[in-house]
Write a structure and sequence with these properties.
Layout: E1 2-5, E2 17-20, H1 25-37, H2 53-66, E3 109-113, E4 126-131, E5 142-149, H3 162-170, E6 174-179, H4 184-187, H5 196-209, E7 214-224, H6 230-238, H7 240-243, H8 245-248, E8 253-259, H9 265-274, H10 281-291, E9 347-354, H11 372-381, E10 387-394, H12 410-419
Parallel strand pairs: 1-2, 2-10, 5-6, 5-7, 7-8, 8-9, 9-10
Antiparallel strand pairs: 3-4, 4-6
Length: 422
């Protein structure tokens, strides 16, 4: 294993490597400008802590409005109490009837699926947006399709990810932004793995919609925050690469790019309970809403509030740290290497961590999901010879900017794919 700074050594060579990027002065200056620019808005200054879940979501929405090319995600800080619904584990391959008209060049096409065609959990609509730039794909079908999953704010339909994904499209990638729910509140009601059938439907719809714009060779599954957590849990729960290859794999290659995702929510919840940062407090309610233990809501491990006081359900199916055994504040992972591997190709995984620099933990510009949620996943996947794993660390990038193009991982992820020969 090597630890590399930018330009120090070639780390994207298919081996196990850790790359650490240096903070960019211009980037930090822009962040400072954003902080000043939001200081007098109705949601409060970015240099303070959000005292309520919606405050931080709104603040990050302001960041996206001020600099959409950088702010590509928002944290998941809303609360609800609904119990998860169950859905079947096996889905058919793409039926021909789903094929729709060829996408219009250089134009975003938005599709809303009311009630997500009756697929749970919940009854909200699901959404996707698709962009094809044939001129960037040698004048025809692209060899690469990127399905990029929204963060917890669920804002594909609003176009929040368009500036980022247009950069990908300029690179010769057919891009889709996928959103399993309509609202952030609903996205916080269920264990991530229970989104499987909604995600499966959206991926099938996108592939069908892309019928002549993509030649089927390379599929890239990407996302940030919630969108870097739910896909892996859903894939593992259903062994999707093996049981649903017509939906979840490309013909010649499949890649999974996870920007600042969660691999062990119970351990994360316990660590947040120990934090002295006021910005971490709303997270406990989010965990309670997702995993179903209704009380206590007090943000303090000293009163047994961590790990939802040991209650709730669904923690295990969201724990993708393969090989993890149960501990006092976390369950064992139910998954093995076979659950995240494909039988006929080596899936390429890239895990990206954004640490927020010196900003306060759980603040809008800080580290909302600690690095160990990514590094422990990397260590677990490194034990699986059936897959390839690469890790990149952006210590100066805030969670809210992770995956953005120029500074926080997007362009480097594109370059990594190019290094694979894609």
């Amino acid at each position: 294993m090597r630890i590399c700074a930018d330009n120090d050594c070639p780390c994207d060579d298919g081996g196990m490597s850790i790359q650490r990027s240096r903070p960019a002065t211009a980037f930090l200056a822009l962040l400072a400008a954003l902080v000043v620019g939001c200081g007098n808005n109705t949601h409060g200054s970015l240099d303070g802590d959000a005292s309520e879940p919606d405050d931080l979501i709104d603040v990050l929405a302001d960041i996206a409005d001020s600099a959409p090319e950088l702010a590509d995600s928002a944290p998941e800080l809303a609360d609800s109490d609904a119990a998860p619904e169950t859905t079947p584990d096996i889905a058919p391959d793409i039926p021909p009837a789903e094929v729709v008209s060829q996408p219009v060049a250089d134009t975003w096409q938005a599709v809303d699926l009311p009630n997500c065609e009756g697929i749970g959990p919940g009854s909200e609509a699901c959404h996707y947006r698709l962009l094809w730039r044939p001129a960037a794909c040698a004048g025809g079908a692209c060899s690469r399709l990127l399905v990029y999953w929204a963060g917890g704010e669920q804002s594909c339909a609003a176009g929040a990810y368009d500036p980022l994904l247009e950069k990908w499209a300029d690179s010769g990638v057919l891009v889709a932004c996928a959103q399993p729910f309509t609202t952030s509140d609903e996205a916080g009601r269920y264990p991530y793995a229970d989104e499987l059938e909604r995600m499966d439907l959206l991926t099938r719809k996108i592939r069908a919609h892309a019928n002549t714009a993509w030649d089927g060779r390379y599929l890239i599954i990407g996302g940030v925050s919630h969108g870097a957590t739910a896909p892996l849990a859903a894939i593992a729960k259903s062994r999707a690469f093996a049981t649903r290859p017509g939906v979840w794999t490309g013909r010649d290659g499949t890649a999974v790019i996870l920007f600042d995702g969660i691999s062990d929510p119970a351990r994360l919840e316990a660590s947040i309970g120990l934090s002295s940062s006021a910005g971490c407090a709303p997270w406990h309610a989010r965990f309670v809403g997702r995993y179903g233990a209704k009380a206590p809501l007090v943000h303090d491990c000293g009163n047994d509030a961590c790990y939802c006081a040991g209650g709730g359900s669904g923690w295990d199916i969201d724990t993708t740290v393969i090989g993890q055994t149960a501990g006092p504040n976390w369950p064992a992972s139910p998954y093995t290497c076979a659950d995240i591997a494909a039988p006929d190709q080596k899936v390429q995984y890239r895990v990206v961590s954004c640490g927020g620099g010196a900003a306060e933990p759980c603040s809008a510009l800080g580290d909302i999901i600690p690095d160990d949620q990514q590094t422990r996943l990397v260590d677990a996947l490194a034990t699986c010879p059936e897959v390839a794993i690469t890790y990149y660390d952006h210590p100066g990038c805030a969670h809210s900017l992770c995956g953005s193009w120029d500074f926080c991982g997007g362009e480097k992820a594109r370059d990594w794919l190019t290094s694979l020969g894609w």
